[in-house]
Amino acid sequence: MISNGMISQTCKGQFAFLPLGQRVLDKLQKVVEDELNQIGAQKVSMPLMATAQLWNKSGRWERNGSIMFKTKNCENAEFCLQPTGEEMITEIVAHHGAGISDGRPLLLYQSTEKFRNEARPEYGMIRSTQFLMNDLYSFDVSLQSASNTYKIVTDAYKRIFFERLGLTEIQIVDAENGDMGGDVSHEYHLQNAAAQDHIALCRDCKTSTLWSPNIKCEKCDNKMESVPTVEVAHTFMLGTEYSSVFNAKGDDGIPYSMNCFGIGLTRLIAASIDTLSTGNAMRLPYPLSPFKVAIVLPKPTGAVTPPLDFAYSMLDTLEGLRNLDGDILIDDRIQKSVGRRLNELNQLGIPHIFVIQAKKSFQPHDHIRIEYLRTEPRSKEFIDCGILNHSQMLSVLRNNI
Fold first, then answer.
1. Where in the sequence is the signal peptide annotated (predicted)?
2. Half-sphere exposure of 259 (CA within 13 A, CB side)
């Protein structure tokens, strides 16, 4: 990500997103938020800092002390940079959560920066001290209703990972709730050589669970293998762990049943790149590519001049196609050779690349010869798809975008 100009390290464990990386991050955030909006979740934005008083109510000020960045204001009041938002969202709902009823849960989410005082930040964005997370919190009037909501949201997560992003390598495993509290939780692991975590995987029936030595598959009794992974999401059924403490109750005085859900957006991008890339050729899930299409202009030689008018008229045509508006890169760096530019585009993993071949005249459009190249996840080199004319190129894009 650094070598391709997506991020820049500002200090150990912290990174700035540059324009290319921000495009990828914005696309992922949109995919996630689109799916959450579809199930009736509503977006909010909470402060990054919270008071010690708030976190002391849940008891996590001390329990989580080692992983939190803490500070004091000019009045000597203590604050933390929040690693998660259960305390704050529950207190908000306690004051503004009227209208929650059976079958009508309240689902609130945000996509904001989180902070962890990591002892050993490493692997770039996979283990950093500051990261972007999408966290969702649900409130129901009963445990049964909360269980139904949990399924609705986790089904949305499956659509995000498997259908929208095509990350079929993700394994969902039962997990411990740990410091979060509650009774049920699941971790979402992406197979990844960075090996932040390990899960146990049965190669025969594909069952997966948390790793422990000599573990056997509960379904087929075969010995399970240790698979290196990165945890990219986590979901919890919290019960009344927080709602009872913060007095988030229904009209009947019974505390709401809560769930919480989180996707590490920046971690997911980094882990996806590690999983899908080969050598120096960066690859991302197709919907997250920095640009879907690149048009490479020829380098001027002799009487041949760069076809700028042609390229920009083509751009107007392409942007009229479905899902292409603002997603086309015109590579007009004609001072560089075509080969060098193609190498850089390959490293960025642009899915569709069209190279306009040099000629003296670029009119009419259908006489233009265009080389069509593609990249795919795990492909190290371009896939050569042949020579097209202008009409054929439009046909390809209509059918493949």
1. none
2. 31
How many degrees, rounded to 5, is the angle at CA 167 between CA 164 and CA 168? 115
Q: Give the separation between CA 182 and CA 111, rounded to whole angstroms.
A: 23
Q: Pick the closest to residue 138 from 175, 178, 85 (CA basis).
A: 85
User: 198-228: buried (b, 16+ CB within 10 Å) or exposed (e) per residue?
Assistant: ebbbbeeeebbbebeeeeebeeeeeebeebe
Same domain, 225 and 167: yes
Which mean pLDDT values do the consecutive 10-residue runs of the chain (401 residues) have?
89 93 97 98 97 96 89 96 96 89 92 91 85 97 95 98 95 77 85 79 81 81 86 95 95 94 96 89 94 88 62 72 82 90 93 82 64 91 90 84 72
Do both 322 and 383 map to the same domain? yes
Q: Give this prediction's pTM.
A: 0.91
Name which of 187, 189, 188, 182 is nearest 259 in CA terms. Answer: 182
Residue 116 lies in a domain: yes
User: Does residue 371 sit within a domain?
Assistant: yes
Number of neighbouring beta carbons within 10 Å of residue 258: 29
